[in-house]
Design goal:
alpha/beta; 5-stranded parallel β-sheet; two-stranded antiparallel sheet; globular; binds thiamine diphosphate; binds magnesium ion
Length: 410
């Protein structure tokens, strides 16, 4: 025995378990408008405290306040509201379609709509996202047709990916949406590599990488930050901290760093923390980081503080690991409601118009779904052909696949 006694392993525990009272008293929330907005060419050493704060624009009264306000017009905000409402309705319909057996799997964005919808509006054509499965708002806000998303979800004869990808793992080069990989955190190394290539070619396009709080524990995360830092790659590195990695609470992946954003500090990368449920704040911070990248000033790490209201996926049951009422206790509110209230406050929106928009959006989603279903669903109607299986992978098909295709008679 040493004089210190035996060691014991520290395993972080969430504040509460199912049946307990939700408690977010550990989430310190600064007043809206209180965090300064530095110039984009600031020395990262001067803004280290931004990694420990939360940039917020919308206050409790629905007003936009402080130095990060004012990046969007009323028209743009109305469109932002519509994008988030569309994503929410799309999710609800696709969740139902999964329950009806029309697809095997679905992942929803409930509570996180502002992150991907607002970020998309800060990018320019030609920029490339390397998203995870919870950023479909990049497509919706980017004008990608919902019917194509549904065709992918249903793996039908019009599935742009011909049944090769898990449902929701979309891909559209045209829309700046790199093929989703289920292997978490590959997004960060790929985004940094793509950004470095853009710089090597003296192009003007930038990349955006996406991971969740849990995925930051992967070694790819750290490798990506080394390369981004060393080569000042034109990339925005996004961490969506929705408090949960399936059943594992964010304290496990975060370790002792205090916040996920703080991970950037050791790499000399400017690191900002933002209210992920505040459409205006997300857009303002995204715009700041995109401008830095575009001006060749290098990478930015952003942590979006948000909450995953729904289950991780249709294969998950959150009641097994967190209190049922936890989402209602989340102190940063609902992104859709907050933007709606702001626009009502500005007298450019109303409860009636909101109801009407909800009905119009539902009609549009249902119409897209009808069209997609006419091309087939998981167990009914049109499917990709067997021949499709052999195409689109190799520029020149290897002999063994050619042989297999002949054997299949396609
Ligand atoms: C490399 C790798 N490890 C594990 C998994 C299994 N897995 C899929 S999603 C997930 C949780 C990810 O949580 P987070 O990064 O917080 O993202 P969120 O689902 O909350 O958006 C895990 C462990 C995976 N897909 N890839
Ligand atoms: Mg998460």
């Amino acid at each position: 025995m040493t004089e210190h006694g035996p060691l014991s392993l520290h395993v972080p525990e969430p504040e509460v378990r199912p049946g307990g009272t939700p408690d977010f008293s550990n989430v310190t929330i600064p007043k809206a408008g209180s965090v300064p907005r530095p110039e984009v060419d600031v020395d990262p050493r001067e803004i280290r405290d931004l990694a420990y704060s939360i940039i917020r624009v919308l206050n409790r009264d629905g007003e936009a306040v402080g130095p990060w306000a004012g990046t969007l017009t009323d028209e743009e905000l109305l469109q932002g509201l519509r994008d988030m409402m569309t994503l929410r309705t799309f999710d609800a319909r696709m969740l139902m379609a999964q329950r009806q057996g029309k697809t095997s799997f679905y992942m929803q964005h409930m509570g996180e709509e502002a992150v991907s919808c607002a970020f998309r509006k800060a990018l320019a054509p030609g920029d490339m996202n390397f998203p995870t499965y919870r950023q479909a708002g990049l497509l919706i806000a980017g004008g990608y047709p919902m019917v194509d998303m549904m065709n992918q979800i249903f793996s039908n004869e019009r599935d742009p990916l011909k049944g090769r990808q898990l449902p929701v793992m979309y891909s559209s080069q045209e829309h700046g949406f790199f093929s989703i990989s289920g292997n978490l955190t590959t997004q960060f190394i790929q985004a940094v590599g793509w950004a470095m290539a853009s710089a090597i070619r003296n192009d003007t396009k930038i990349a955006a990488g996406w991971v969740g709080d849990g995925a930051t524990a992967e070694s790819d995360f750290h490798a990506a930050l080394v390369f981004a830092s060393t080569y000042t790659a034109p990339v925005v590195l996004n961490i969506v901290n929705n408090q949960w990695a399936i059943s594992t609470f964010q304290g496990i992946a975060r370790g002792g760093s205090g916040t996920f954003a703080a991970r950037g500090l050791g790499f000399g990368i400017p690191a900002l923390r933002v209210d992920g449920n505040d459409y205006l704040a997300v857009h303002a911070v995204a715009k700041w980081a995109v401008e830095r990248a575009r001006r060749n000033l290098g990478p930015t790490l952003i942590e979006y503080v948000t909450y995953r209201v729904g289950a991780h996926s249709t294969s998950d049951d959150p009641s097994a690991y967190r209190p049922k009422e936890e989402s209602a206790a989340w102190p940063l509110g609902d992104p859709v409601l907050r933007l709606k209230n702001h626009l009502i406050k500005r007298s450019v929106w109303s409860e009636e118009r909101h109801k009407q928009a909800e009905a119009e959006i539902l009609d549009a989603v249902i119409a897209a779904q009808k069209e997609a279903e006419s091309h087939g669903t998981l167990h009914a109607g049109g499917k990709p052909t067997v021949r499709d299986m052999f195409e689109g992978v190799y520029a020149e098909m290897p002999p063994h696949l050619r042989r297999q295709r002949q054997e299949a008679g396609v």
